Amino acid sequence: MARVNLSPARLIVLVALVVGGVAVLLNGFDTDGDVAAVGGTSPSPSLSLSPSPSTTTSPTPTDAVNTPEPEVDGVTFVVLNATSTAGLAAEVQQMLEDEGYTPGAEAANAPTTGVAKTTVYFRGGADAAQNESNATNMAEEFLDGAEVKLLGAEFESAVPEDTQLVVVIGADYPGAEA
After folding, report:
1. Is the Cβ–Cβ distance between 111 and 89 less than 8 Å?
2. What is the model's pLDDT at position 59?
3. What is the DSSP string of the chain?
4. How far, in Å, CA of 68 to CA of 70, rounded?
5. How far is CA 12 from the centre of its chain?
6. Are 165 and 79 in contact (CB under 8 A)?
7. What is the pLDDT of residue 121?
8. Residue 47: what pLDDT?
9. pLDDT score, position 147
10. Residues 115, 173: contact at Cβ < 8 Å?
11. CA-derived radius of gyration, the chain
């Protein structure tokens, strides 16, 4: 085992640290929880260990706070049939119209066919958050949890500019043929 060098200077520093530590332990705390000032016996008013009221709150998820309530009244939509089942778009349009949605155009065939999954597209822009909320609600409530996506260029020419939602009926819709 190695021998520890206990030179007088090191020994003095060690003793000073031990004495200082004992002094802090014996005099450092008073009965009401305040810390005593180093080198004195009166507590410093700025050094308090007592809990103080906090003005901060825990953060909340912004998505939950900023998600608008879904609307039905006044929400315009178009239904496009991407299956080979004739009349399916008109059937879905009538069902959604009966639920309070406003058709923006007559039901029609989609510019593409053979779509596997029914999707509700929402228009972007300044009202994108509201449109997405409306699309999600429509998909969950009336279209068996259809996918929800931002409206892309593939359907822009097929729907009027003031249409907020576009429902594309896919092969997964009940009664649809691929």
Report:
1. no
2. 47
3. -PPP---HHHHHHHHHHHHHHHHHHHHSB-TTSEEEPTTSSSEEEEEE-S-----------HHHHHPPPP--TT-EEEEEE-SS-TTHHHHHHHHHHHTT-EESS--EE-SS----S-EEEE--STTHHHHHHHHHHHHHHHSTT-EEEE--HHHHTTS-TT--EEEEE-TTSTT---
4. 6
5. 60
6. no
7. 96
8. 47
9. 96
10. no
11. 35
The domain locations on the chain are 8-48, 70-169
Mean pLDDT in consecutive groups of 10 residues from the start of the chain, 178 residues: 68 72 64 51 49 48 70 95 94 97 94 90 94 97 95 82 94 85
CATH T-level fold of 70-169: Alpha-Beta Plaits (3.30.70)
Chain length of the chain: 178
Residue with tokens 């155009």: 105
Pairing of strands 165-169, 119-122: antiparallel
